[in-house]
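CORE FACILITY INTAKE
Project code: CF-77B
Contact: R.S. (postdoc)
Sample description: multi-component assembly, two entities in total
Requested service: structural model of the whole complex
Turnaround: standard
Below are the sequence entries exactly as provided by the requester. Do not edit them.
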Amino acid sequence: MGFRTALPDENMRAVIDECESELLKVISPRYVYRAADIVRNGGEIAVSGTSLVFKGRDIAAHLKDCDRCVLMCATISDGADRLIRAYEGADMTKAFVTDCLASAAVEQVCALAEEEIRNRLSGWYFTWRFSPGYGDLPLDIQPAFLDALNAQKRIGVTVTDSMILIPRKSVTAVMGISQQEIPRGRRGCICCNMKDTCQFRIKGEHCGS
Amino acid sequence: MDLNRLLSEKEFVLLDGAMGTMLQAKGLKMGEIPEALNIEKPHLLTEIHAMYADAGADIIYANTFGANRYKLAHSGYTVQQAVSSAIANARAACRGKDTLVALDIGPIGQLLEPTGTLSFEEAYDIYKEVAVAGSDCDLVVIETMTDLYEMKAALLAVKENTDKPVICTMTFEENHRTFTGCSVRSMAVTLQGLGADVIGVNCSLGPKELYPVVEELCRWTDLPVAVKPNAGLPDPVTNEYSIDAKEFAALMSDLAALGVKFFGGCCGTDPEFIRELRSALADMKYTQRKNVIPPCCCTPANTVVIDMPRVIGERINPTGKKRFKEALLAEDIDYILGQAIEQIRAGADILDVNVGLPGIDEKAMMVKAVKAIQGIADVPLQLDSTIPDVLEAGLRVYNGKPIVNSVNGEEKSLRSVLPLVKKYGAAVVGLCLDENGIPKTAEQRFEIAKRIVSRAEEMGIRREDVYIDCLTLTASAEQEGVMETLNALERVRRELGCQTVLGVSNISFGLPSREIINHNFLMMALAKGLTLPIINPNTESMMQTVRAYKLLANFDKNSTDFIAHYGTQKPAETVKPQINVDLPYAIDNGLKGEGAKITEKLLETTDPMDIVNNILVPALDKTGADFESGKIFLPQLIQSAGAAQACFEVIKNYISRSGGSSESKGKIVLATVKGDIHDIGKNIVKVLLENYGYEVIDLGKDVDCQLVVDAAIRHKVKLVGLSALMTTTLASMEETIRLLRENKVDCKVMVGGAVLTEEYAMKIGADFYSKDAKESCDIAKLVLGK
């Protein structure tokens, strides 16, 4: 919310608590995932059994030690969109705070999904979650990504023509998996698509991820 | 064979099983377009259909689930090609059998407004194209819908463009809701109202998990019910479904006892499942349901059952309200939304929506208001207009089952309004007046009520959906009429069994201390059987009366609701001790209520513009400076702006009451560019700019480039603000600026958004890059002065 390392005052904490409890009432977190082999074809990486093809140097580097991957999609449902819209008419502060909380919530759902995936595939090694839009992985793979997971039918996530996931607080991500240990990849600011404008970075700080 | 014969001749009707599962087993990849196979591999489709027909399916679904122009866009085939070939393949498979072929319609693949970007009207068009292309089917199935609004668009498109019967099935999760929050009962009453022939559920879960969903559905409709579940739940890693054909059939036959008529399978099922299903149902009898569906209206998530008095909020109505009229003329939808939220907070169960005002396009405004209110509020709406066209426009875009206000005993009214009520499945308010005006006696009003009810029933509108208004007359002018109204109401309730509506506030017109009269009259009416009082819920004594009545009349069991409202003393609004609360303090600390109160007090002694210039603006400047220097953070800046906004609203009301008009420092057009729907930043900017006295023309989100140009020209603005949050939508920002320049619009352009940089802003031809909301105010000052 821009507080960065500063702490919100008592007044603002009360607002945050209220927004949190309202948000929790209206969201229903859901996720879907599937594991699939990957097939390298020139510079491209195809996900077998689907029409999804990854392009770009960054995803290639991300998956370089893997011959399988797990695709996942998580959402907190359009209850959050609705609540934020309602607040926008009545109280912009709550709209803003709720928007921030909802972003954090969908990250938590991703973390939960990842935990389940890691448990189901114990014995496998994982890379971290890489999403379309990171580095040079284009956003326009979102439709194929969702189709590969049957995400509209399974958890109600769709994508607009300009590649925005709807409900808004939804995430797609891919993790590479391997039977061999994967050298820990760099997950710093450099491969973030916000690296030039990030307010944290300008101030010499870091975001939560 | 047709659907009606199937219904009467067969104990149960068997649908087919999954198509996608079968195609994937034959090598179709996830993400490939299954409808392309209709043309490329017709034999494959015919073969699968024939397996289902042989297994005993009475109806098979043609492979048209995704055959809409949106999903086919990159397939190389037209909707007509995909649909015609699909139906031909299905027909070929059924040759020599009585099996019916259904045109299968699934979701478009994009979410509708307001969460998504697809409009209701576009959705209708997309479905219309499919319906027309498939008009040689035997019946239509609309399935796997999770959004009631999209379902409505599809159902209307089918009903208006074909004469085929329609089966509508939606997809529910374990919480008995669809993904978009639609409840089973809302689905049932809405779709039955809209004229579906069969309703039901498909996909998402297995027959076991769907049992309670089907049970609820069977209680909320008297239409035949269809169930087409998955083969249990899928394993996320292996994608295998959890139950086999035998278990599936056994669980499905449990559903038969609930009164289900149509049985089939969805994802993970195959012809074996249908064969097992047929043998499991072979010796069973259809269970006839005997339901009484209560009077109700609904939104997708909220069904308001009129089993006790329900409050209809009357405030969305310009009659006698200067500020409301101004808002309508300025198309200030936020003002209307504010009125909606305030009433819901105060306890309104239903909101009346009247936007009739000379000089505005009432039809367009009704559509705009209905869409906006249902986008944020979860209470049913009562569409209020004297013009049938306006009512129809509102009914069309309403999501759920609304109330129409109103029809009356005049022949012209009955003829024009009741058909709309029937077509769109609404409830209707019937006013006890006719060609001869409002009758004096209770007896005469009762007669009109009877006539309205019988005309409604002739048209197929249930008596439960007619809410009779016996009409309140002003006590100061027609004192003897008050008891006539109440006596008529009592008879309507007792003898016709209808719900009753009454606008209450009119009773006290022209009398002092109106509130005393109003809430006492309300209590008298409730005691006589009023179930739908139309009141101002913001008046505390009115809500107190309703809540007290509900307690005393034994509706509010254990006084739960009453105690929740009045059991504890509410804590004061402010957290801070009330020392030295002045206006700058209130703004600094984001105290809305306090700020408004102090402003009201100040207005008794101070000129409104002095308050603005000497107190509010300096206070805002201070919070702006604090934000810039890092003393406060964005949420606090917004909070202060919100408090100032509340003060400005008080001042606006004051000026409007005293006949003046607020001074504007100039107009600014704001828009989130085409393709982008991340508009929260733009909305924050808007609040701040308005606080500084600029008139903001907010075009919203996903705004077409040309619309920005048109608005800038029409309003002669000197400053346009554009926002975009996605790298993918920066191109629309560039295009919008290019169009503004090309059309030689004499204005400056400021841009902002997370992915923008100053450098990029200059590259795409903007005049200013605004790094945050505060800076946009500085830019406005620079461009517009003051």
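Facility notes:
- Residues 10-202 of chain A form a domain with the NADH Oxidase fold (CATH 3.40.109.40).
- The radius of gyration of chain A is 18 Å.
Invoice: internal transfer
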